[in-house]
Design brief:
The protein is an alpha+beta fold and 132 residues long. It is built from three helices and six strands. Strands 1, 2, 3, 4, 5 and 6 form a six-stranded antiparallel beta sheet that branches. The longest helix is centred in the N-terminal third of the chain and has 18 residues. Belongs to the 4-hydroxybenzoyl-CoA thioesterase family.
C-alpha cells in the first residue's frame, strides 16, 4: 500500500471552515500521481506516445471534514475493475486520531492514439506483483 503525508492549506477551506469537497479529489489525484511516479509511470512520457491515462469514474464517500492545518495521510492501492479498467482505492486518514475522513474508488483507463481503451501493460505488471 502506498501512502503520502499532506496538510490542509487555509485556501482549501470554505466558509464553514472545512475543506471544500472538490479538494478531496485534488488530494486523491496528487496521491495517485505520486504512486504512479514511484512505480516509474510518467504521464508526460505516455502522453508523448499518445497514450492517455484518464479517470472514467470517481466515487467518494465523505465520512468527516478536514479543517485548516489538519495533517493527513492518503493511501492508494490498485485493483482490477475489468479487463481494461483499473480501480484506485484511496483513503484519507487524519493523522491526529487516525479517523477515516474520506474513501474513494476512482476508475481509470488507458486510451490508445485512436482514443480507444486498451490494456495498459505497466498497470498489469503492478497488479501481477500485488498478487504475489
Amino acid at each position: 500500500m502506498f501512502s503520502i503525508q499532506m496538510q490542509v492549506r487555509d485556501y482549501e477551506c470554505d466558509l464553514q471552515g472545512v475543506v471544500n469537497n472538490a479538494n478531496y479529489m485534488h488530494y486523491f489525484e496528487h496521491a495517485r500521481h505520486q504512486y504512479l511516479h514511484d512505480l516509474g509511470i510518467n504521464f508526460a512520457d505516455y502522453t508523448a506516445q499518445q497514450i492517455h491515462l484518464m479517470l472514467v469514474r470517481a466515487e467518494l464517500d465523505f465520512k468527516a471534514s478536514l479543517r485548516p492545518n489538519d495533517e493527513f495521510t492518503v493511501t492508494v492501492t490498485m485493483e482490477r475493475e475489468s479487463r481494461i479498467k483499473y480501480a484506485f482505492v484511496q483513503t484519507i486518514i487524519r493523522n491526529e486520531d487516525q479517523k477515516v475522513m474520506c474513501v474513494g474508488r476512482n476508475i481509470g483507463v488507458a486510451l490508445n492514439p485512436n482514443g480507444r481503451p486498451v490494456v495498459f501493460e505497466p498497470f498489469e505488471a503492478v497488479l501481477e506483483e500485488a498478487i504475489k
